[in-house]
Design brief:
Number of helices: 12
Order of helices and strands: HHHHHHHHHHHH
Radius of gyration: 34 Å
Number of strands: 0
Length: 232
């Protein structure tokens, strides 16, 4: 039997495959980890592919939302520049097309304001409660919405609903003073002296804790005068 030639091309290639270290070995990884990675490389690549897909999808969705928000803001700006029936028409378009965006929300709030100005308070209340249902508690627009609801109920002589809206407003940092002042006003109008005094005192206490400093609200002196009247 003839001896196998060590310089045979096939022998050289096989030897190179056996002896050449892989990338994982060159990285100095533990042998057990190398075996695990090679055994499960198909699964690992699938997982990596899914992760890359998710990251890409989120990135594209973020870009789409930014684009949509920009279009909504531009549409709202144009609507606010318009007058009369044209303004209302454009606001409705913004609310319908971009209802879930901040611009869509502000469009609906503005529609409620226009309805109030036109004496259509029922429609204004319906619009504002519709907006409220679509907002989370942490939405920056919620305090303004609650204040508008309270004021609308107050103008409709609906004290319980007004107190409810203002009471919820008082739970938002930075809006306590305005809420207590409004509740004091409602209670005073209902001849509830004790509750009016309580709310007005809370209003003054909230002003004392305001970062802007005591006396920031120009109505402070008026409220202090109301307290003196109610106490005597």
């Amino acid at each position: 039997m003839s001896e196998q030639n060590p310089f045979n091309r096939q022998n050289i290639e096989q030897s190179a495959v056996v002896q050449a270290p892989g990338l994982l070995e060159q990285l100095g990884l533990p042998p057990d980890l190398i075996r695990f990675l090679r055994k499960n490389q198909r699964t690992i690549w699938i997982v990596v592919g899914i992760i890359v897909f998710i990251i890409t999808a989120f990135s594209l969705y973020g870009s789409y939302r930014a684009y949509r928000d920009d279009k909504a803001a531009s549409a709202l700006t144009e609507a606010m520049k318009a007058d009369g029936a044209k303004k209302q028409e454009l606001l409705i378009q913004v609310a319908d097309a971009y209802g879930s965006t901040s611009s869509g929300i502000w469009a609906r709030v503005e529609l409620a304001r226009l309805a109030t100005a036109a004496g259509e308070q029922d429609r204004a209340v319906e619009e504002l409660y519709g907006v409220r249902k679509s907002l989370s508690r942490n939405n920056p627009a919620m305090p303004l919405l609650l204040y508008n609801l309270g004021a609308l109920h107050e103008s409709r002589n609906e004290p319980e609903q007004a107190i409810s809206a203002y009471g919820e407003l008082a739970s938002y940092l930075g809006f306590e003073a305005a809420a207590y002042k409004a509740m004091g006003r409602v209670y005073e109008a209902e001849n509830d002296r004790e509750q009016a005094l309580s709310m007005y005192r809370k209003y003054l206490a909230a002003l004392e804790g305001d970062e802007s400093g005591p006396g920031f609200d120009p109505d402070r002196e008026m409220i202090e005068a109301r307290i003196n009247v109610l106490e005597n």
